[in-house]
Amino acid sequence: MALIRLSSPHVYKANSTANVMRLVLIATLPGILAMTFFFGWGTLIQIALAGSLALAFEAAILKLRKRPVGFFLSDGSALVTAILLAVALPPFSSWWVTATGIFFAIVIAKHLYGGLGNNPFNPAMIAYALLLVSFPVEMTRWTSPMTQNGGGWQIASFADTLQAIFGSVEASWYDSFTGATPLDALRHRGALTTEELWRSSDVLLNGVGAWYAVSAAWFMGGIFLLSRKIFTWHTPLSMLIALFLTASAFYGFDPDNYISPMVHLGVGATMLGAFFIATDPVTSATSNRGKIVFGALLGILIYIIRTWGSYPDAVAFGVLLMNLCAPFIDQYTQPRTYGHSSANRGMKGKN
Amino acid sequence: MTDFLLILISTVLVNNFVLVQFLGLCPFMGVSNKLETAMGMSLATTFVLTLSSVCSYLVYTYLLKPFDLTYLQTISFILVIAVVVQFTEMVVHKTSPLLYKLLGIFLPLITTNCAVLGVALLNIKKQNDFIQSIGYGFGAAVGFSLALVLFSAIRERVAVADVPVPFKGAAIGMVTAGLMSLAFMGFTGLVRF
């Protein structure tokens, strides 16, 4: 139907989906390594579990839809979804939590809409939001970083982690290895000011460094993808700036009640979200101007939901809410096409 | 003023009438196939919802309550809504025939939008005063419009996607509405009302 007219250069190698996904997989390595270092074997086991389940579900649904299984399976998009969900899940969450999430991500959020390229919502974030709403206890039992346990290297052993994920362990075991995340701790501060809380909370005093390190690792992966031109700078930069500016405004206004902007950038899923989730080419806005709007609104939404909402981290919900708005943003940010004096965007007039 | 703002945030985002309270689903599913009709519907519904919210409040406070006729509230609100819709239709017809043509059948259809009756009844249940009723009606309408416009933009995209045959059309629309509702759960707790 569409007549493709290309101008020079005529010889070039298009970036295939499989190639892009491979680069994304490589870029997640520093983040995964950092998480394994600070939170133990759980992350790796979750990735293996989620990855194999994702491939299995993808193959099954492709078979059901009578699509070429090998072709779509080898593009690696299911693996990327699985990894993004696996690093977002608490490392000790049970296998059925992961399985439910992967099923929802691959089958409902992706293939009911026609597979890769057609899904309006980010599959991994849909699964995360669903799990957070359905299993709040499992989803908020986050592993304490090893720096917090004083001893330096104390993380749960491989066998214990396997037992926690596939079998069952006593509640006391969870107590010694899991705790509040920095964002959790900062939400439930009672009558303390932010600074008093910072001095009294174990996770903030000793554990927050691990979170900063994990964020830095995701940031590195993101910069790698940016340098390979997998995505443009518009979405991550505008998101981080918007989050920083909103947080600075409130922090400057009342530092006793609001969290400092650097903490907002360093903890939680901010960096993972900015570089790996918000930049998803399928579910975010298309034009450069649209990407800036998308990122900026996402940053503001993350701040709002983190500060006043009732869920611990806001990246998943923020991304989903912006996915909702993406088609609408696209409609109003179409660039002017060459030869037209004004952009053809918005409502099409009365004719 | 803060009170008014809180009501707006509460009704537009936290307790969105369509995505959280599941009211007004018929126009939400029915008129969301195209962005432009969704826009027209949103404008008309906003006008009617705000006006009928105020009118039903006035009818309840100055007519039903003094005469001890509060058991007639449902039927009288339906009457008020029908009158407001008729009035809107006449005004739009006279002042802007173009908009009237654009809205077409959707204008009279607003009468059957359960969000309109829902707002009128909830106003009484929550014992909102005059100003609060305005805010509640307007907020509900803005929330409805927001959900409808965003939903229709997504549906335009899903319409050209390679959706499996059993899920084409309304089915994938329902799934999308469910996922939108999931996304809106992120606003839980912003305003405690």
Please explain how this structure is put together.
The complex is a heterodimer of chains A (351) and B (193). Chain A is mainly alpha-helical. Chain A is 64% helix and 1% strand. Chain A has 17 helices and 2 strands. Chain A has a two-stranded antiparallel sheet. In chain A, helix 2 (42-64) runs parallel beside helix 5 and helix 4 (77-88) runs parallel beside helix 6. The relative contact order of chain A is 0.10. Chain B has 193 residues and is mainly α. Chain B has one domain. Helix content of chain B is 73%, strand content 0%. Chain B contains 9 helices and no strands. In chain B, helix 7 runs antiparallel to helix 8 (130-159). Chains A and B meet through helix 6, helix 16 and helix 17 of A and helix 3, helix 8 and helix 9 of B. Chain A: Its cofactor is FMN. Chain A: The complex is composed of six subunits: RnfA, RnfB, RnfC, RnfD, RnfE and RnfG. Chain A: It holds the Pfam family NQR2_RnfD_RnfE. Chain A: Keywords: Cell inner membrane, Cell membrane, Electron transport, Flavoprotein, FMN, Membrane, Phosphoprotein, Translocase, Transmembrane, Transmembrane helix, Transport.
